[in-house]
Amino acid sequence: MLIEKEKIIDCLNNGGVIAYVTDTVWGLGCLPDNEQAVKKIYEIKKREAQKPLILMSNEIYNLLDYVKPIPKIGQILIKKYFPGALTLVTDKSEKTPDYITSAMPTVGIRIPDNEVFRQICEAIPNHVLATTSANLSHQPSAKTYEQALENMTGLADMIIPDYGYSAKGLESTVVGVMNNELRIFRQGEIVLDETLIK
Q1: 26 has a pLDDT exceeding 70
Q2: Which of 17, 97, 104, 127 would suit a FRET pair with 67, their CA atoms being 20 to 30 Å apart?
């Protein structure tokens, strides 16, 4: 598999928005330091301003500068479930812009377990994407390349094929770990019980 790395880099460096497969559902993303590109994602999705984006990468160490030291319980979850269908919400650092987090003091981070996504992140500057799902707000998430084309043709600047590495179709589980306390915001593919995680 040869993803079009140069094309993807050019698109993102020029403020573009790309659609791509992950292990859960299809994503829509841009470079996190490009405010105009982030605004474009909100416009494409008709997304409410108070709903934050998350940050995704191919390796956890690429995301560590964007967050404050992760509490022990968060580190346990990272060790157990990254890469995979878990989004960890934790306190952000000054490097994470307010326009990504809707001015909230926290940010979600995730490492998808998907080869195409991994190669995209390896190729791009800083190896991190500000991201959300590739669908219009309040509409179902795209689970296949065909659905991503249907949702994002004429909206995203580039829709990257999945090269056979398809999404499983169930959203990630979203868990908050602020003040070393666990809070489940959304049960997704990974089923968690906060009383069982120590």
Answers
A1: yes
A2: 17
Domain assignment present for 86: yes
pLDDT band at 16 (very low <50, low <70, confident <90, very high): very high
Tell whether omega for the bond before 83 is within 30 degrees of 0, i.e. cis: yes
Q: Does residue 108 contact residue 87 with C-beta atoms inside 8 Å?
A: yes
DSSP assigned state of 67: B
pTM given for the model: 0.95
Q: Taking the CA of residue 138 as centre, how many other CA atoms within 13 Å lie in the half-sphere pointing to its CB?
A: 3
Return the amino acid letter for 135: N
Residue 142 lies in a domain: no
Work out the angle between the directed axes of helices 115-123 and 5-13 (0-180°, nearest 10): 60
Domain coverage including residue 52: 5-136+147-186
Q: Phi-psi category of 84—alpha, beta or left, where left has phi over 0 and alpha has psi -120 to 50?
A: left
